[in-house]
Amino acid sequence: MRILGIETSCDETAAAVVENGAKIVSNIVASQVDIHARYGGVVPEIASRQHISVIIPVIDEAMSKAQISWKDIDGVAVTFGPGLAGSLLVGVGVAKAIALALGLPIAGVNHIEAHIYANWLEREKPPVFPCLCLIVSGGHSDLILMKGHGKFDKLGQTRDDAAGEAFDKAARILGLGYPGGPAIEQVAQSGIARFPLPRAWLKGTYDFSFSGLKTALWHLAQREEILAKGSAVADAAASFQSAVVEVLVGKTIKAAKEMGVGQILLSGGVAANKVLAERFLNSSPIPVMIPPPHLCTDNAAMVAGCGYYHFQTGQVSGYDLDVVPSLSLG
Ligand code: KG4
Ligand code: ZN
After folding, report:
1. Would the N or C end of the chain have less CB density within 10 A of its end CB?
2. Half-sphere exposure (CA, 13 Å, Cβ side) for 278?
3. pTM of structure
4. Does the pLDDT value for residue 62 go beyond 70?
């Protein structure tokens, strides 16, 4: 079964063709990062206008790279939430038009669920249930127990900033630009995590909190000598990164042991962080799966892959599918 996936929930316009939820036939991502960088974050109105400009060329390119014709597509999957309303509307509108014109079934896909399904792409062995999913992106830090396809129990979430949002804000504090995650990771490579920054363990819960850490970093950066010296900026970035990584790894492994799962699945943009990946792979007694970096950040292959399992389990949407910007999972 060949699915066309469409993703426009934030600042990436993406289309992909995926076979049987696993084989990527084509995967096109048009990033708006350069457009939003000058504002230090995503400007919703500009994002939706940009999606309108590029969505058709992006879909055309996904189809032409796949070297197939429309009659070879068996269904359309599209992110319908969570995300920016104006951005989601572009993807959902185009997906409905294609599905209706070609008489194809359409699956509205939850963006957080799609991130999880990046772990099914291009794998020799698919994940096994039950597994524990850590989704860490610009908008979410969720710990979700997955018992089967479409069966999710949310164990915990962030109480304030998402992990990716914390990286973005930390980078802004340190003058490292946007998006913050890759910037912090790069600068931290030459730094030493020597500054004592707080870790919010929130014992007895599976929740996360990163706003206290961000505030502590801000106070640290107020000390003039920090931002004046390149090496101190690198040390501050490394200290921040290691505080985030320590909490994400520690709480996830603890939850995985308590839930008795056989696997941990990472996903979302922050899962592209190499220090996080190494820390998980070195310290977890439970096998950890992490998609390659380009499948951790927003893409449409994960949407198409997730859509395949929706069709397999009869979760087909109507042609009246609408966006749900505040959609949650589990
Ligand atoms: O999943 P994603 O592409 O979009 C959302 O669904 O939000 O995640 C984007 C987030 C941004 O906050 C970005 O700074 C962060 O993921 N990110 C990273 C890295 N690459 C992207 N954070 C830490 N290290 C990275 N290498
Ligand atoms: Zn995302």
Report:
1. N
2. 6
3. 0.96
4. yes
